[in-house]
Design a protein that fits this description.
Chain lengths: 424, 531, 431
């Protein structure tokens, strides 16, 4: 028995299955490129579901992300998003949220101002686009509307009571209650399990039946993000109808539904859209030749060789394996790309965890040129066919800047455009 | 704000091993104590050590007296508090390049101190500890053991509370003593959480504040206590590396002892003299040095995942004109009756080792009992230490095994790494020392394994906080502030070991704490509203 | 089932060090719980994949060596698929199973493995080689007599040098031999040069599920020897999941010499349809019955990957009509195990097995499909069982049934797994 061997030819090989990778595939398809995407399940399931563009700049929360981007270009010219104009970023952002809506996960269109997305602790975060299932919560809070927030027996890390207590001062009409989810008595429940169960209409009806008697005049009902996995907007609409109040979701601690939703949405839609997707496989090696690159992957039974004319690296940071470190240095394990870094780890992290300046290590990563090609220390591209996007890029701190999705989407767009131009 | 007032036979200042030991010692003699700590139990050196119950082997060469004391006290504790002790045995190992003469003289030093010491061949040593290197010059087995420093202190306090009206007040800091006619009349304290003034009247005042003993003594006008502060740093691994204690057979230096701590191992210990016992934290150079030294003895440490480092300050006695190098200083203890300082109801116990805390408490107990006219003898060398239901959760794996055995599907696990369930947290909230007041995430974590696993509180801080809101323990935005304080504190120990497998963990933690919980945007004033 | 007192206590950290690659071992775990959240066995016996890792790190070797959960985990590898670090708990579960004392292991699995070792047939239902040959011949004669179109149907056995050698799940020869007919007809239809092997023909391997590596190896060796001896180019695994995984994985794991390629029947269905040799279509589905399909873990996630899922969908969509196909979500490599695998069906733990299968049931119900197609015998039985237990109105069917239905060659006796709605559709012309 020989180990299987398969060759796939593609124009663009996207490595990484986070938001940047999926966004790159979407943009490449739109450009008419032949695209293949690879990478082991990454960090997507850790997202809140909110798509941030730029929520914090200069250590201050920003209401207007577009104005903040203008300041970013001035204050942090090396920031990856500083390489792009606002119209370009908006085009990218809209392209991504439109694609999500087309795939069945409703997202709000990016506006001029940030929204105050609700978080489970009873705090809010500045974000630009939110799942449609989460939007009414923002309105309810702003209006101080009569609202009931629910949690469930056995669901860890989400306390409706905590939500109520922490919003109480400015939202006195907020009340909380606890329910036992239908058929989930006496057990630990994960949000994912509840969401899958709500795909079943009988469960939707049973849950709505439990919620109705608790309303007590509430106009809004907030629940942890569990309203189904693949058609949340439909499920929400159906349950709202059954309950007689506006329903909204609140993010939960990972493993959380909104991120799993996104990943499964891409995994479901991409094969039909023509992306050659191997979400299970990690790229073990890449070799560049004169006319393209060869990627090597290893499935359980077969080895894959991908012949690509261009490669887009969107492998993220430590959590998804895009970066690694030993006791002294950071490295990029797939291509050993250069990383400008201090000598030793003294300067990686600040002494105070929540130092508003963020940790310097978060700004270390891959240096790219204006075409989003990784560069050598002298500034020359590592390879004219290699592009990079997303959190692996240097000079950004997406967690602290509240810019994770924006960074991923905008740089994926720019890198894909550059790759398309090179291939043209 | 009117002051809260308390009265007791004895006020003990310092909730470490010695203070809690004095509390139990006196309670066993029928004397009522009030124990206070400006933070919480084991906040000083008692919580900042490797949990080694010394056979005495480590001191055999340099300090036969301390070594013999360790051996005697170790035997007593193994007998009376077996539930707090892992009698895992220990090795002293010399590797290539170590001083042969020092190694050769070791058995004789042990013999003098009365420490059983069995020579092993390299093969025998590796059979016990397979990760030892090939090149072993000499190896000896000694009866080292490990002790859970948190459990034994909790048990001391818990037992004292059950014996009489003795009580424990955390977060109570001594500010001044009111003294007249050669006696302390009352101690004036501050509740560090509420800001309240707390006045405590007692007949006797015991200063068992460890590294802070000199400062506290000075508050009472006593200038006879003089301490040297020696900072020691240790690393904690994700899993247990060796079966027993492994000591490097050489003069004590950085990174020459690896002590199992139940399900983890602790590697240490550095020794740096510091000016002030407050505000210490492990540093990256210390960690790197300890690890480099440790790996010479156990190369597997180079591939070991460390989850945390921590530091403690050893309070060492400074005799007039003596050594200023902490490692060479006397590890013995001293009892100060302060009578030559003009006080008849104040005493300080300082110096010593965790292993000898019981003996220190006995000496103090004898003094205080005599002063109070009690003829009751010390019973801590005979009376087994009973175990309390709410006090056994600091033992690694205890909560996990308990939960697994009870198999109650409704009992949710709050901390997954260490598998601490709601039921364990419930007993702590109800019955652990300090529960009379107000339990916080941090206090519960001190009394359990919460926050001590690989995630270092990334998930469990949020899950426990949610649960405390659900239970009504928290009823204001203050719960979020306490959670933020907790993760900020944990981070200080995490930072120096951030590399390798801890990097993804740290990235995930920041995604949770900042991205999901908005901790970096919250200010203390508004409890965390981002607007 | 109670915890066993007699087996060995393993040191699971050491097991993990030995079995799992560096960087994907317990030490890489960030405790995120994606594995546990996505595992249908989570909560059974208080366990889940994350807890398995944490308990190993807490030194709870006794508990891990005795928890019956290792028989509720089907080793489907969904945890490893989802884990950002790629930690594969299923291998530790396999080691734990192996350490149980034989007399304490679920007797159904142990008995099935023992039966497989009785005879070179390797049949878990105890069908000896000569009985198998006899059953095949009798069944064939019946078809030749009663179905004029197949009067010359051939079922070669031990035909040396045939292009394909195909295995056969024991269930059909043992209890429903007429169910072998659809496959024979398909092979006849495409003119395949194929054969059964009288030795090692059985498409099941409960020895792998017992955790007994020697027994697993013995099974694979018997089969590999038999296939090698027939000098066939390709071994085709029938509509079954684990019998595929067990063979190729066994060959790799035990370093066996195999002079053939291992392929799935699904791959060939797709190839024959593409080549026009199997001219199926959905014309028969005039009522627009809705179909969904189960991706067997052993075939897709654990073996061929999404390529098998693509082939499966191509076959099914061609058969039922694109518009009548509804995917379960999640699916393909991310699909949930139904709970029929890993020996769960035979382990005598029906309460746990159905609790596990509830997620699959919800997935199916959400599709609102009338039929579930399962190219795997264990999936078939489990999905059928949970459907009945939880009150689902769907019917579970093999692909070969639908293929023959579409081709108009499915006899009236071969419709056991079709609902009344399809009982009379496209019956072969009476001649």
């Amino acid at each position: 028995m020989k180990r299987g061997h398969r060759r796939i030819e593609t124009q663009l090989a996207v490595i990484g299955t986070g938001i940047a990778g999926f966004a790159a595939s979407i943009f490449a398809l739109k450009r008419g490129l032949d695209v293949a995407q690879f990478g082991h399940s990454g960090a997507m399931a850790y997202t809140t579901g909110y798509l941030d563009l730029l929520g914090v700049h200069g250590q201050r929360i920003r209401q207007d992300p577009w104005a903040a981007l203008d300041e970013l270009r001035r204050d942090e010219p090396q920031h990856p998003m500083s390489k792009l104009s606002n119209p370009t970023i908006r085009t990218a952002f809209d392209g991504f949220t439109d694609a999500l809506c087309d795939m069945g996960i409703g997202y709000t269109k990016a506006g001029e101002q940030n929204l105050s997305g609700l978080l489970p602790n009873g705090v809010a975060k500045p974000t630009l686009s939110v799942p449609k299932t989460m939007l009414p919560g923002i309105a309810a809070r702003e209006a101080g509307a009569r609202t009931l927030v629910l949690d469930f027996d056995g669901l860890q890390g989400f306390s409706a009571k905590a939500f109520e207590v922490n919003f109480a001062e400015r939202w006195p009409a907020l009340k909380s209650a606890r329910l036992t989810f239908p058929d989930m008595e006496n057990r630990q429940v994960f949000p994912e399990v509840l969401a899958r169960s709500l795909e079943n209409r009988a469960t939707q009806e049973a849950l709505a039946g439990l919620i109705r008697p608790l309303l007590n005049g509430a106009e809004y009902v907030g629940v942890p993000a569990i309203l189904g996995m693949h058609a949340p907007d439909e499920i929400r609409a159906r349950m709202e109808h059954a309950i007689g109040a506006t329903l909204f979701e609140i993010p939960t601690i990972p493993p959380a539904v909104p991120g799993i939703r996104l990943r499964e949405c891409f995994e479901r839609a991409f094969p039909d859209m023509g992306v050659k997707l191997e979400p299970q496989l990690k790229v073990s090696n890449v070799e560049f030749g004169r006319s393209g690159a060869t990627l090597f992957l290893h499935g359980p039974m077969e080895d894959l060789e991908i012949e690509a004319s261009a490669v887009l690296l969107a492998t993220g940071r430590f959590l998804s394996g895009g970066l690694k470190s030993d006791q002294h240095r950071l490295s990029e394990p797939l291509l050993d790309l250069p990383i400008l870094q201090p000598d030793g780890r003294q300067e990686w992290f600040r002494h105070e965890y929540l130092d508003p300046r963020g940790h310097p290590i978060n700004r270390l990563g891959i240096e790219v040129d204006s075409a989003f090609r990784p560069v050598m220390p002298d500034g020359d591209p590592v390879n004219e066919r290699l592009f990079a996007a997303g959190a692996i890029l240097a000079h950004q701190d997406w967690v602290r800047q509240r810019s994770g999705a924006g960074l991923a989407i905008a740089t994926a767009y720019a890198a894909t455009e550059a790759a398309a131009a090179m291939l043209a | 704000m009117p002051a809260r007032t308390y009265e007791a036979d004895v006020l003990i200042i310092g909730g470490g091993a010695t203070g809690s030991g004095v509390m139990r010692d006196l309670a066993l003699r029928g004397i009522t104590c009030l124990l206070i700590d400006r933070k919480d139990l084991n906040a000083g050196a008692s919580g900042g050590n490797h949990g080694l119950l010394h056979s005495g082997g480590r001191y055999a060469t340099a300090d036969a007296e301390t070594a013999a004391e360790c051996r005697r006290e170790g035997d007593i504790l193994k007998w009376l508090a077996p539930e707090c002790i892992d009698d895992c045995g220990g090795l002293f190992v010399a590797v290539e390049g170590d001083d042969e003469e020092f190694a050769g003289a070791f058995p004789e030093h042990c013999r003098v101190a009365g420490i059983p010491c069995e020579p092993l061949t390299a093969a025998e040593a590796r059979e016990r500890e397979p990760d030892l290197p090939e090149a072993i010059m000499a190896a000896y087995a000694v009866p080292d053991a490990t002790i859970d420093p948190f459990r034994i202190v909790l048990e001391n306090v818990g037992h004292a509370q059950r014996l009489n009206d003795s009580a424990y007040l955390p977060h109570t800091e001594i500010e001044e003593f009111e003294i007249s006619d050669g006696e302390i009349r009352k101690a004036v304290c501050r509740d560090r959480r509420s800001g309240e003034r707390v006045e405590i009247r007692a007949r006797q005042f015991v200063n068992a504040s460890g590294a802070w003993a000199e400062k506290v003594a000075r508050l009472a006008g006593c200038r006879d206590v003089s301490l040297l502060y020696s900072k020691g740093t240790l690393l904690i691994s994700n899993t247990r590396v060796t079966n027993g204690v492994v000591n490097r057979l050489r003069l004590p230096d950085d990174g020459d002892i690896l002590v199992p701590g139940g399900t983890v191992s602790l590697l240490g210990t550095s020794s740096v003299t510091v000016e002030d016992p407050d505000g210490i934290a492990p540093t990256i150079p210390e960690v790197d040095r300890i690890l480099a030294e440790g790996a010479a003895m156990l190369p597997v440490l180079n591939e070991t995942r460390f989850v945390r480092a921590f530091s403690g300050v050893r309070p060492l006695l400074k005799a007039a004109g003596s050594e200023t190098d902490g490692r060479k200083a006397n590890r013995g203890f001293a009892l100060f009756d302060h009578e030559d300082q003009g006080l008849v109801n104040f005493a300080t116990v300082a110096g010593g080792k965790f292993t000898t805390f019981r003996l220190m408490a006995e000496k103090m107990g004898d003094l205080i009992a005599r002063r109070l006219g009690s003829a009751e003898p010390c019973r801590t060398a005979r009376e087994p230490l009973p175990s309390g239901e709410a006090l056994r959760w600091t033992e690694p794996g205890a909560a996990a095994r308990d939960w697994f055995r009870r198999a109650d599907p409704a009992d949710m696990i709050l901390c997954e790494c260490e598998m601490v369930a709601r039921s364990a947290v419930d007993t702590i909230i109800a019955d652990a020392p300090g529960a009379e007041d107000h339990m916080s995430l941090k206090a519960i974590a001190l009394r359990s394994r919460i926050g001590k696993g690989a995630c270092q509180g990334a998930f469990c801080s949020m899950r426990v906080t949610s649960y405390l809101y659900d239970r009504g323990v928290y009823d204001s935005p203050d719960g979020l502030r306490l959670m933020r304080d907790f993760v900020k504190e944990r981070y200080k120990g995490v930072r120096p070991v951030l590399w390798g497998a801890q990097m993804p963990q740290a990235e995930l933690a920041e995604i949770l704490h900042c991205g999901l919980a908005g901790m970096d945007l919250a200010t203390d004033a508004d409890g965390g509203d981002a607007k | 089932m109670s915890a066993h007192p007699r087996g060995d206590t393993l040191d699971f950290l050491k097991v993990a060090k030995d079995l799992l690659p560096a960087g994907a071992s317990y030490d890489a775990c960030v405790g995120c719980g994606i594995c546990a959240s996505g595992c249908p066995a989570s909560g059974l016996h208080g366990m889940d994949p994350r807890r398995f890792i944490n308990m190993a790190m807490l030194g709870m070797n006794k508990e891990l060596s005795t928890t019956p959960w290792v028989w509720a985990c089907t080793q489907c590898k969904r945890c490893a698929y989802l884990c950002p670090m790629g930690i594969d708990v299923s291998q530790l579960v396999g080691a734990a199973r192996g350490a149980w004392a034989t007399e304490d292991k679920p007797s159904g699995i142990v008995r099935s493995c023992a039966a497989q070792r009785l005879d070179e047939s390797t049949s878990a239902m105890g069908i000896m080689s000569e009985d198998f040959v006899e059953i095949v011949e009798e069944t064939l004669e019946e078809i030749q007599e009663n179905q004029p179109r197949f009067a010359d149907l051939k079922v070669p056995i031990d035909k040396k040098g045939a292009k394909f050698v195909i295995n056969q799940n024991s269930r059909e020869p043992a209890v429903e031999p007429e169910e072998m007919a659809p496959l024979w007809k398909i092979l006849d239809y495409v003119g395949a040069d194929w054969t059964y092997s009288s030795k090692g023909w059985a498409a099941e391997n409960f020895c792998m599920f017992t955790g007994d590596l020697d027994a697993w190896k013995e099974m694979v060796e018997t089969r590999v020897d038999a296939i090698n001896a027939l000098e066939c180019e390709t071994w085709i695994n029938t509509e079954c999941g684990h019998s595929f995984f067990t063979l190729w994985q066994g060959i790799e794991k035990f370093g066996l010499e195999a002079n053939f390629e291992a392929e799935s029947l699904v791959t060939y269905y797709a190839q024959w349809i593409r080549e026009g040799r199997l001219p199926v279509n959905s014309d028969w589905n005039t009522n627009n019955l809705k179909f969904t399909v189960q991706d067997p873990c052993q075939l897709v996630r654990k073996s061929i990957g999404d390529k098998a899922a693509d082939d499966l969908r191509f076959v099914v969509k061609t058969l039922v009509g694109e518009e009548n196909f509804i995917d379960m979500q999640p699916c393909r490599s991310a699909n949930y195990c139904c709970g029929g695998g890993g020996g769960f069906l035979q382990a005598g733990m029906s309460k746990e097995r159905r609790a596990y299968g509830k997620r699959k049931f919800d997935q199916i119900i959400a599709t609102e499909a009338d039929y579930v197609l399962t190219p795997c015998h264990n999936c078939h039985s489990q999905i059928d069982d949970v459907g009945e237990y939880f009150g689902g109105a769907y019917t579970v069917t093999h692909l070969w049934t639908l293929i023959c239905l579409s081709l108009g060659i499915l006899g009236p006796d071969e419709r056991k797994y079709l609902g009344p709605d399809l009982a009379d559709i496209n019956l072969p012309d009476e001649e």
